Amino acid sequence: MITHLLTRIDLMMNTFSKGQKRIALFIEEHYDKAAFMTAAKLGETVGVSESTVVRFASELGYDGYPKLQKAMQEMIRNKLTSVQRIEVTSSRIGENNVLDSVLGQDIDKIRRTIEETSHEDFNRAVDEICKAKRIYIFGVRSTAAIASFLAYYFQLIFDNVVVINTTSTTTMYEHIFRMSEDDIIIGISFPRYSKMAVEAMDFARSRGAHAVAITDSMASPLVSSADSILIARSDMASIVDSLVAPLSLINALIVATVLKKKDEVSETFRALEQVWNREGVYTNHDSDDRKPEENDR
């Protein structure tokens, strides 16, 4: 079966009705925008009815318009430029309240993440993390922030955490060349996918290490080398990468790991609390009468 959407359209163009041809031509020229339109909006844009759009999807062999829409989104997943993101975001929000629209979309991404993430893969990842000799965490560019968040807590729990957030391929391999089958790598990448993230996951697979992919889709290039796949919905069409759902998933990963090692982690944090209290790491409102230089430590 032909899977590429544009190939299907080209082969079937002569069989389409006049209205369907208008849809087909619009998709060929503007699939980056069509991918985020409802059937009604696409029909309105090209001057046909919503039912014509739905029939067009069926003609192409898709089980409903949402499947056609998904095919368009997968096609552009790694190709949407920053300028295109701005244009698509502008058309999606329109005259709506930006705050309400963005927060509403993020709520939807968390809901979809709950529905689509494999509990089996999640539990397997937690087990492998807890028994790993070394834990490698890979996240660059926009995902470096959530990789650092994960690493911060894991470094409090474990003493074997290696964070990789360099954009240098040479430096990356210097970090991971000792990786073995006793280790685990957590690779984090969302559209537009990092080539280095894919290389790091491939290297982990070649060394027999357990690879955990935190990404947005089973179509992600990280998936082919992953042993455990954790799907967290992002938004490749937003002006900025939406990492709300990925961060929530990472938060769950930290909590699950702590609960699995509850007694050991409790002892660690008791010792840390003593250090934090001794060094005045956190503000104590009951001691505001201290000298300013003491409060500013």
Characterize the structure shown.
By secondary structure, the chain is an alpha/beta fold. The protein folds into three domains: 5-76, Winged helix-like DNA-binding domain superfamily/Winged helix DNA-binding domain (Arc Repressor Mutant, subunit A), CATH 1.10.10.10; 117-260, Glucose-6-phosphate isomerase like protein, domain 1 (Rossmann fold, 3-Layer(aba) Sandwich); 264-297, no CATH class. It is built from 14 helices and five strands. It has helices at residues 5-12, 18-34, 39-46, 50-59, 65-76, 82-93, 98-116, 119-131, 144-157, 169-176, 195-207, 244-260, 262-279, 292-295, and strands spanning 135-138, 161-164, 184-188, 210-215, 228-231. It is elongated and about 75 Å long.
